[in-house]
């Protein structure tokens, strides 16, 4: 209806403009009847049109306006959120309290954010919770997000979240979870072409390995970072990379006086890099590192200046952990100058800060210093109390590190197994893709498709058979000694180490028999190396008959062999050794074309409660075998402490 009215109105308007050229009397006579007729026919339409214009049009205009305004506001909100997140990312380490407060303001807008903004918000939120000591608040959002799929565009955020989650697990001493996540993360870092992701990932790896005292592993990753420092465009990344390298160098070589000046110079470079990035937390750590070197060099005045600067920076953040470390170092300086009362004040300040952050390694150092200072001041009761607390924390940390190392080894084995599985799964996927492509290209010709599928099946079968045979061949070459057919040293010792860990947890005995052949060099010299090879194979053949299914018979090298015996007492091991000795001695060499006697010396050792790994048992068995060599040939010796 509005269209009709508008059309009539336009006609009326045109007519009206034409009539303006007529005289007034002619206009009335000519158009008055037409005007009356028009109004009579269209009066109700004009009324309805007016109503529509005043009611419907404003409503539709308002609806369009509201939609447009909402969209415009959404765009403005997202731009504002982007700016807020970017500013918070720059100061997340320098001003954690400011970041925490701003995140509370942004939290109600989470549903309005796009996917990338939600990822950035989650990273900032988890980082903030971690700094405040809230494990569940820090790890929960990351685990939730990582359970969801990531688009290829946002893959870098998956890496960032895994890196942060690994760091959180490590910080709160969940080492099994940390190592598991780290082993998932490292292959992703190798494939990604993002220097920032590699910086944070390798820093976390170096930090975890350093924390569980695997310093060579830590140094490997920090060196990899340091080699790429010139390629980093961000001053912040350069700061983090150099910090990881300097910290690993200091931990690994900090006791070497010849490296003091090198380490001090590196700390100076670290301070300059981090000053450009305004990373006050690491600037503070670099000042404390320089102060430690100055303390070792007995330059106490300059050391105090560095510590005062570090305390000022740490207080601005605030970062209680570095404050605690600073007071510990001040206390050490005062103790070195025999100012024990002032040292006691400083160490109490350190204790207050350390207890707030619950950092066990720092608390351990504090209690040790408190015990020593109180003893010098004559307060023996307090010294004993603090010494007991020190011992408690020391045992706790030793247990934790021991468990962490076990977790590392276990996770490493699991990772290698999964890596093999993934490799074969990828091959299966490639084969499946190839078959799918063949099927797609052969739909137009059914007969050809059948022929090709049959051909592919034959090829795949032959390929699978060949791969299986090759795999078995190479696995045997990698695990067994080619000459004797028993385990080689690497495989045998790894299997024994894993079995020993299981036996030590259940409290059962674990024995090791170590033996070598008497005058084996004489056999090689007199009869040739072929005869020596015959002797080695014959000895392994007869000794293997005395080994049980659970024993691990290993060639250690040359004419030296080991038998690892799980769940075996010392007396049983001795019986087995005596039988093996008799079997070796009974070997008839006439069939080899020469007549001579083969004998061997045996050393036996059994695990004790103090053994944390297989190495001490092997060392004692070696000592026992050496005793056999000194005393007589064809002898079985059990290790006895001298």
TrEMBL record:
This is diguanylate cyclase. It catalyses: 2 GTP = 3',3'-c-di-GMP + 2 diphosphate. Residues 508-641 form the GGDEF domain. InterPro entries: Diguanylate_Cyclase, GGDEF_dom, Nucleotide_cyclase, Rev_trsase/Diguanyl_cyclase, TPR-like_helical_dom_sf. GO terms for biological process: cell adhesion involved in single-species biofilm formation; negative regulation of bacterial-type flagellum-dependent cell motility. Its cofactor is Mg(2+). SUPFAM superfamilies: Nucleotide cyclase, TPR-like. The keyword Transmembrane helix applies. It comes from the Bacteria.
């Amino acid at each position: 209806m509005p269209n009709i009215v508008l059309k009539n109105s336009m006609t009326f308007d045109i007519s009206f403009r034409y009539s303006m050229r007529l005289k007034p009397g002619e206009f009335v006579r000519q158009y008055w009847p037409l005007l009356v007729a028009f109004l009579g026919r269209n009066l109700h339409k004009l009324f309805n049109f007016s109503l529509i214009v005043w009611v419907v049009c404003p409503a539709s205009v308002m609806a369009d306006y509201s939609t447009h305004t909402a969209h415009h506001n959404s765009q403005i909100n997202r731009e504002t959120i982007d700016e807020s997140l970017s500013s918070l990312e720059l100061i997340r380490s320098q001003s954690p309290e400011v970041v925490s407060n701003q995140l509370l303001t942004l939290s109600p807008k989470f549903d309005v954010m796009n996917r990338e903004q939600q990822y950035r918000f989650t990273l900032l939120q988890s980082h903030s919770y971690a700094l405040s000591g809230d494990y569940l608040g820090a790890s929960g959002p990351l685990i939730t997000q990582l359970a969801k799929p990531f688009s290829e565009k946002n893959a870098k955020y998956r890496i960032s979240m895994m890196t942060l989650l690994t760091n959180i697990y490590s910080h709160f001493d969940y080492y099994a979870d940390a190592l598991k996540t780290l082993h998932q993360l490292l292959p992703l870092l190798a494939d990604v072409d993002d220097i920032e992701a590699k910086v944070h990932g390798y820093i976390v790896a170096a930090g975890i390995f350093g924390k569980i005292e695997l310093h060579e592993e830590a140094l490997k990753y920090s060196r990899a970072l340091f080699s790429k420092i010139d390629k980093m465009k961000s001053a912040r990344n350069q700061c983090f990379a150099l910090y990881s390298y300097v910290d690993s160098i200091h931990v690994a070589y900090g006791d070497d006086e010849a490296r003091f000046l090198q380490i001090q110079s590196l700390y100076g470079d670290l301070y300059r890099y981090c000053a450009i990035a305004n990373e006050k937390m690491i600037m503070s750590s670099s000042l404390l590192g320089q102060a430690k070197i100055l303390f070792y060099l007995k330059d106490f005045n300059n050391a105090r200046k560095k510590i005062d600067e570090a305390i000022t920076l740490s207080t601005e953040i605030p970062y209680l952990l570095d404050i605690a470390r600073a007071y510990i170092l001040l206390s050490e300086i005062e103790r070195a100058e025999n100012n024990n009362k002032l040292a006691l004040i400083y160490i109490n300040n350190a204790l207050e800060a350390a207890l707030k952050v619950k950092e066990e390694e720092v608390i351990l150092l504090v209690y040790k210093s408190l015990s020593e200072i109180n003893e010098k001041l004559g307060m023996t009761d307090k010294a004993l109390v603090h010494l007991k607390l020190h011992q408690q924390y020391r045992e706790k940390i030793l247990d934790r590190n021991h468990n962490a190392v076990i977790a590392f080894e276990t996770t490493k084995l699991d990772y290698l197994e999964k890596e093999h599985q993934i490799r074969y799964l990828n091959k299966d996927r490639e084969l499946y893709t190839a078959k799918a492509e063949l099927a797609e290209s052969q739909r137009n010709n059914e007969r050809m498709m059948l022929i090709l599928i049959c051909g592919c099946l034959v090829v795949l079968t032959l390929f699978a058979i060949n791969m299986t045979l090759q795999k078995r061949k190479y696995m045997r070459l990698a695990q067994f000694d080619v000459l004797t057919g028993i385990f080689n040293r690497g495989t045998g010792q790894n299997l024994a180490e894993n079995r020993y860990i299981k036996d030590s947890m259940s409290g059962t005995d674990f024995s090791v028999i170590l033996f070598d052949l008497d005058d084996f060099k004489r056999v090689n010299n007199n009869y040739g190396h072929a005869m020596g090879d015959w002797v080695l194979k014959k000895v392994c053949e007869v000794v293997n008959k005395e080994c049980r299914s659970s024993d691990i018979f290993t060639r250690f090298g040359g004419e030296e062999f080991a038998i690892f015996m799980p769940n075996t007492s010392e007396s049983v091991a001795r019986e087995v050794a005596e039988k093996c000795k008799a079997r070796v001695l009974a070997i008839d060499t006439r069939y080899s074309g020469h007549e001579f006697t083969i004998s061997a010396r045996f050393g036996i050792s059994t695990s004790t409660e103090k053994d944390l790994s297989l190495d001490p048992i092997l060392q004692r068995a070696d000592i026992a075998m050496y005793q056999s060599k000194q005393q007589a040939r064809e002898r079985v010796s059990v290790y006895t402490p001298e």
